[in-house]
Amino acid sequence: MADGTAKLALGDKSTDYPIMSGTVGPQVIDIRKLYGDTDMFTYDPGFTSTASCESGLTYIDGDAGILLHRGYPIDQLAEQSSFMEVAYLLLNGELPSKSEFETFNTHITRHTMVHEQLSTFFRGFRRDAHPMAIMCGVVGALSSFYHDSTDINDPKQREIASHRLIAKMPTIAAMAYKYSVGQPFVYPKNSLSYTENFLNMTYSVPAEEYEIDPIIASAMDKIFILHADHEQNASTSTVRLAGSSGANPFACIAAGIACLWGPAHGGANEAALNMLREIGTPDRIPEFIARAKNKDDPFRLMGFGHRVYKNFDPRAKVLSKAATEVLDKLGINDPVLDTARELEQLALKDQYFIDKKLYPNVDFYSGVILSAIGFPTTMFTVLFALARTVGWVAQWNEMITDPAQKIGRPRQLYTGPTQRDYVPLGER
Ligand code: CMC
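^ thats the input. predicted complex w/ carboxymethyl coenzyme *A below
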């Protein structure tokens, strides 16, 4: 909706651009006609000031530390809701009624199995492959198995593909884990909840009964909720960009997984725990803080800082509390938690971190919990991908149905050589 205009003056010529308002958050200047009105592009590496789309899913106020899904605060969802309910909310815009929720659960549950032939894919990977490498490959390969849900212009096929992706991610993630430890794959058990089923496929073995610990299941579900969606972050933007060309949903989500893997994004949870383990004991923290502040050292405190949150990350608050609860309840005394707490305290008092508004992010405490549950660090980002699939799929659907959507095609500021003539090899 246009809400006033912004004037751009270039020399003696000025042009008006519409200002658009959302329901909350900064207004945007609609510059779609800039190139045409002028012969200029805008320059915004990393899209720090650019809204790439209109979205009604997730709202973040980074200064106030607010994260809302369809209007609901993340802490309320984490404390009171379930991951499946949040998935429904993100996909459909409203919390489900009891019967809507049951129907949704049935749909997701029906799709938990993967094509039997898909398991042969795993055997092609080296046993020590990083599970994120396996995820990129196997999720991309889904498009070769489910041809009946790749027509992005058919709403029913989009819905089936969305349900398939959400339902099959835990199965594929658990298979990636089983493959890495050399244990047989475990089939989904549809009598279990989404999260319990994932834990069962991950930790049960045919030789003995596996009892799902409700503390672990509840912590895991909370972690999934906290990672479900996060506005136009790098991997979500990747999914949207891939989808803008009309690529099928399985390929788009595989692209999102690839982007998430990076240590500045989803890979930070693995990097954060590795860092805490490397620090080892609280007395070594000042050495690492000094390194993080040293401009000549590329080292950064992993799990600290965020492009959008400049006050605190509300997800980190929930996880900080959950980390203590889970370790207490499981009776685990992990020195890594002490190191994390001490590092947080020291960094928050340090002028460098205060000036740059660097606070613990979601990845700082999630690793402590996941490690207590028994996951190897290499699985951390896989779990992030599993949960974020809900957000990716919801954002992808929103994009496909947005009439303003075009293929994503940024421009550039070219600084290479101007036109020159080719010189044959013998003359160079
Ligand atoms: N440790 C030390 N210094 C830092 C850190 C850190 N973790 N993060 C940012 N800085 C400094 C950075 O050196 C820069 O200093 P200067 O202005 O002097 O050059 C300044 O703070 C701003 O950093 P930036 O890289 O320009 O900020 P950004 O918004 O582009 O990056 C970030 C955000 C999350 C990539 C970055 O804070 C970072 O690399 N953090 C560590 C990795 C991490 O924890 N990532 C998880 C993000 S939350 C989960 C997710 O969304 O995936």
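The two ends are 58 Å apart (CA to CA).
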